[in-house]
Amino acid sequence: MDCPYSFINYSFTMDFFDLIRSGNLEEIKKKVEGDSSLLSKTDSKGFPPLIMASYVDQSEIAAYLLEAGADINAKDAAGNTALMGVSFKGNKEIANLLIKQRADINAQNSQGATALIYTAMFNQSEIAILLIENGADTTVKDSHGKTAAEHAEFKGFSELVSLLA
Question: What are phi and psi of 157, to 5 degrees?
Fold first, then answer.
């Protein structure tokens, strides 16, 4: 009896964003070398490659994506940048990389939040210091009319309040 389905040509290939999540730098390099437009694509949730790499703490991949030409200030569907992502996650290595590569420190998302506001909301003092040292504006207000210091105060993060005030 012949099988009506042919599995001979079936091969599993990981999606570009799966490669980022898994940290497969060599395969990412091959894909980007074959199709540089991947640098500006988004996944099914609206995340560009650099934001995905930053969010899942893949610092080597983030560095490679920047070197290959990824937009450092690319935004996801909510207007967040890679720097905003590492600001609430607390990855100082990627934050340093993004700042050195001249990410827009004061970029705002669709709710008016900045990377500094995210540090205040998620108690990321080290990243807040790094942002302030590199020109983050402590007076920016989000769409609720709150500054980073006001968010830190609301959350009870007294160390951050004094840093941001």
Answer: -95, 80
Cα 87 from Cα 79, distance rounded (Å): 14
The pTM of the full predicted model, rounded to 2 decimals, is: 0.88
Along the chain (165 residues), what's the average pLDDT of each consecutive run of 10 residues?
Answer: 41 75 96 96 94 96 98 97 95 97 98 98 97 98 98 96 92
Q: How far apart are CA 154 and CA 156, in angstroms?
A: 6
| CATH of the domain spanning 112-165, picked from 2.60.40.10, 1.20.1260.10, 1.25.40.20, 3.30.420.10 | 1.25.40.20
Task: Label residue 83 exposed, middle or buried (CB < 10 Å: 0-12, 13-18, 19+).
Answer: buried
